[in-house]
């Protein structure tokens, strides 16, 4: 097993029969979903799955567990959310949103009774953002105004995310654009989340406060370490 697989496998122990599970986006969370699907098939475990993106929903169908998918409005609770991270520091502060699903991820993850992060050791940084860009979901109408406001207030550079086919901006499941903000320093205070969200046109920010994270499972070459 690699680090991603070890972290995902360790997270399975927190899922029990009858639970409502928030299923995160990203490569490590995808490994977890595949392992969860295997356990459901082998043990007949009954769970409901709340996806954080349309990609997760499609993957659930592909894995044969599409019938267990529920939208957020269809459930009255989320027992546990299992999600990945682009970067995580010792205080469990996160950078998320590399796949563009930051808004739905934050809603599901924060609403869950328990929010568990899974990542390999390559995602651990001394301080966020750790050189990673900070995704900011913005209304398409306002993207340039937000870009200029972010750069004026905090310095650095905010770049409009362009699709891999170079035909135009990436569009989120919510119909919005994403700015990738490169902060001028290696460390940013989590309070910047509030400042960025105060800019008109900003929908959500890919800074996740460590106080919301119940625990983080970090997969290594030899096992896992737990941050809580």
From TrEMBL:
Swiss-Prot/TrEMBL catalytic activity: aldehydo-D-ribose 5-phosphate = D-ribulose 5-phosphate
Gene3D superfamilies: 3.30.70.260, 3.40.50.1360
Taxonomic superkingdom: Archaea
Gene Ontology, cellular component aspect: cytosol
Main enzyme class: isomerase
Entry binding sites for substrate: 25-28, 83-86, 96-99, 123
Alphabetized UniProt keyword annotations: Isomerase
Active site: 105
One Pfam family from the record: Rib_5-P_isom_A
BP terms from Gene Ontology: D-ribose metabolic process; pentose-phosphate shunt, non-oxidative branch
InterPro entries the record matches: NagB/RpiA_transferase-like (IPR037171), Ribose5P_isomerase_typA_subgr (IPR020672), Ribose5P_isomerase_type_A (IPR004788)
Subunit structure: Homodimer.
Sequence similarity: Belongs to the ribose 5-phosphate isomerase family.
UniProt name for this protein: Ribose-5-phosphate isomerase A
Taxonomic lineage: Archaea, Thermoproteota, Thermoprotei, Thermoproteales, Thermoproteaceae
